[in-house]
Amino acid sequence: MKRVSILIPAYNEEESLPLLYRRLADLMDAQPMYAWEVLFVNDGSRDHTLAILAQLRESDPRINYLDLSRNYGKEAAMLAGFDYVTGDCMVIMDADLQHPPELIPDMLRLWEQGYDDVYARRRTRGRESFLRRRLTAAFYALLRHTTRVPMQPNTGDFRLLDAVCIRALRRLRESQRYTKGMFSWIGFRKHELLFDQQDRVAGQSKWGFFKLLNLAIEGITSFTVAPLRIASVCGAIVSLLAFAYGLFILLKNLIYDDPVAGFPTLMVTILFLGGVQLLCIGIIGEYLGRIFTETKQRPVYFVSSYNGERAD
Ligand code: UDP
Ligand code: MG
């Protein structure tokens, strides 16, 4: 019998969990030809998530749960999940039921046909603000144009991955993670499924504007050095322009005997160049910061317990 794992990172999801469990149990009962495992990763929740997981485990041995030592963020929680899942394939989904479990049988069918990565693409994005929608589109456009890795827009972490993909993902252990890009980066045979993203069943999204902006910067800086190149190109263009302008002033002075004037032009040039320089230093700093964190080579997460038993 093939073993199917469902990986669910959960952070403060006490309200969604009972609903989620009902839907998953219905699904698992309807598909007895697979051996099921549901692996919850409790990402340092501050509510009763852990207690609810322990209860679920008590009543249903198909449930496993991993308790991280603190809140590491969804990306790290997913890596912890990759390390601990035991299935021949794994489905990653959110705890808030934005990802309909009913899609899983379709994913499994495609997996049985030989696909290694069946990813669900959002047909609609659920309720979202205009600004968030625009910024997301801009981010994907930038990534698409600057990397050689094909990135799937409107695709989240909701997907089925074969064991080969899981083994590959386990080896990508950088601490500043942009997992969505890694799915593309590792390659293997991919297939797309369309779905309608639901609204959250309970609670609030943990991704505020700044967290998303951070993830976007993470995505860009961990998959492309294009900003550095853009900075160099900008520098070259500005220097050329400045040189041409200097020549122009010199000739004007020699030919027309024009007195060199222009405090305002001077100010504008200095301020403009100062701005460009600061921006470029900032971009370099982003990459330098990433090198700094990566060279420390710290583990991405620490585990408190697995199924209630203390990790050593
Ligand atoms: N999550 C997590 N750690 C965090 C934040 C979120 O494990 O620090 C989980 C959360 O419990 C949920 C999933 O990641 O299962 C997606 O989170 P959320 O619904 O807040 O994000 P959104 O759907 O708004 O992108
Ligand atoms: Mg959500």
Automatic annotation (TrEMBL):
Q: Which of UniProt's keywords are assigned here?
A: Cell membrane, Glycosyltransferase, Hydrolase, Membrane, Transferase, Transmembrane, Transmembrane helix
Where do the Glycosyltransferase 2-like domain residues begin and end?
5-155
Kindly list the places in or outside the cell where this protein is found, as annotated in its UniProt entry: Cell membrane
Family annotation (SUPFAM superfamilies)? Nucleotide-diphospho-sugar transferases (SSF53448)
Q: Does the keyword Chaperone apply?
A: no
UniProt-listed InterPro entries: Glyco_trans_2-like, Glycosyltransferase_2, Nucleotide-diphossugar_trans
Q: Which GO terms describe its molecular function?
A: glycosyltransferase activity; hydrolase activity
Among CDD domains, the record links this protein to: DPM1_like_bac
Per the record, the domain of life is Bacteria
Q: Which residues cross the membrane?
A: 230-251, 263-288
**Listed GO cellular component terms?**
plasma membrane
Name by which UniProt lists this protein:
Glycosyl hydrolase
The organism is: Tannerella sp. oral taxon BU063 isolate Cell 6/7/9
Lineage of the species this protein comes from: Bacteria, Pseudomonadati, Bacteroidota, Bacteroidia, Bacteroidales
